[in-house]
Specification:
- This protein is mainly α.
- It has one domain.
- It is built from 4 helices and no strands.
- α1 packs antiparallel against α3, α2 crosses α3 and α3 packs antiparallel against α4.
């Protein structure tokens, strides 16, 4: 694999990830509007998100069951996962090019990304 093919592949990955995330969020948003367009708005009471929306498995289950907020959250997770997938693909591409320095740098960046995503309180 050469640099041009790797750049092209990563560019297509980023484009596909963002478009997929946007389509899922749009579908969830439209579905939410169809379901809740006539609901009264109560600004006096703040309602926290559902407990299931705090984990990836919960988001996946809600989205599979057709929950509009689950679909919106799934789209946002896909959007967050897109640059992580880009770093993974860069590490794989550099590995295939036998470029050890950039593999190590990519793995360090991936470690920092995953730590920051998984360590959120």
């Amino acid at each position: 694999m050469d640099d041009t093919r790797l750049e092209s592949f990563i560019g297509n990955l980023l484009r596909a990830g963002v478009l997929l995330a946007a389509a899922v969020v749009l579908a969830g948003g439209l579905f939410y509007l169809v379901q809740h367009h006539a609901d009264p708005v109560a600004y006096r009471h703040f309602a926290l998100e559902e407990e299931q929306l705090r984990s990836l498995s919960g988001i996946g289950l809600l989205a599979l069951h057709g929950s509009s907020v689950g679909l919106i959250q799934l789209g946002l997770v896909l959007l967050i996962a897109t640059p992580v997938a880009r770093v993974v693909m860069a590490a794989v591409g550099f590995f295939l090019e036998h470029d050890r320095l950039y593999v190590i740098i990519s793995l360090i960046v991936l470690t920092v990304l995953l730590f920051s995503l998984l360590d959120g309180h």
